[in-house]
Amino acid sequence: MIFWAAEASGMDEKVLKELLLRENVDFRRLHKEHQACEKRLGDLQDKGFLTEEEKLEERELKKRKLTIKDRMYLMMAEYRKGR
Q1: Positive or negative, the Cα torsion across 59, 61, 62, 63?
Q2: Do 58 and 66 meet the contact criterion of CB atoms below 8 Å apart?
Q3: Is the whole model's pTM more than 0.85, yes or no?
């Protein structure tokens, strides 16, 4: 649903993301946190074997990353509505 809203607007998603990264502190914080989750997931995936603790961390990171992405898309949709 949120993804549909992003595509239905006249503003390109990449342009809007860049705008919000420049102008919105909360969006910038979420983006930074999303990147940190992505990096840690990459580190875990590069390992040949994950301990049970690391498997749990991986699952939690994936959930967190998705939650952050949803919040970012919601902020983008709200920005479009307010324009």
Answers
A1: positive
A2: no
A3: no
Residues 12 and 10: their CA atoms lie apart, in Å, by 6
Predicted local confidence at residue 26, as pLDDT = 98
Write the DSSP symbol of residue 11.
Answer: S
- Cα torsion through 14, 20, 26, 29, rounded to 10: 50
pLDDT band at 6 (very low <50, low <70, confident <90, very high): very low
- What's the structural domain count of the chain? 1
> What pLDDT score does 10 carry?
59
Residue 67 and residue 15: Cα distance in Å, rounded? 22
Mean pLDDT over residues 10-23, rounded? 91
Residue ranges making up the domain that contains 10: 2-82
Crossing angle (nearest 10°) for helices 52-82 and 13-23 = 100
Look at residues 81, 82, 76 and name the one whose alpha carbon lies nearest to residue 6: 76
